[in-house]
């Protein structure tokens, strides 16, 4: 009886662990070629980064946190776990991909194309993200 109980508990534990891991896995972003080909026009000078920081604080901080660590006030209420935008893995993402992810969005990441319409401001946010 003890062996059966131990086996049953082990199976339940394993199933819970696997379901937790499966729920944490995020689907890959499908970035259209148009965005993949995009290159940043003005690399991160002080003015662009400062503008990007201001815009990030206004539009992104509530979810992504003040330092981009994914710990904003709204982060815990989202279905998708927030990524840490300061990691080498995020920094390795191409600028055009970051642009698509940041302004077109998907799921919990809202579309900002109508909120941030100025291209210079959009790229300033990318410059700021790259400076984190």
Report on this structure.
The protein is built from 7 helices and no strands. The protein has 132 residues and is mainly α. The protein has a single domain, classed as Cytochrome c-like domain (Cytochrome Bc1 Complex, Chain D, domain 2), CATH 1.10.760.10. The radius of gyration is 19 Å and the shape is globular. About 6% of the residues have low confidence.
Brief synopsis:
The protein has 7 helices and no strands. The protein is mainly α and 132 residues long.
Properties at a glance:
Cytochrome Bc1 Complex, Chain D, domain 2; globular; 7 helices; 132 residues; single chain; mainly alpha
Write the layout of secondary structure elements.
Blueprint: H1 2-24, H2 33-36, H3 46-59, H4 61-64, H5 88-91, H6 95-103, H7 119-131
Helix and strand string, N-terminal first? HHHHHHH
| Total strand segments | 0
What Rg is obtained from the alpha carbons, in whole angstroms?
19 Å
Shape: globular
How many domain regions?
1
- The residue-averaged pLDDT reads 85
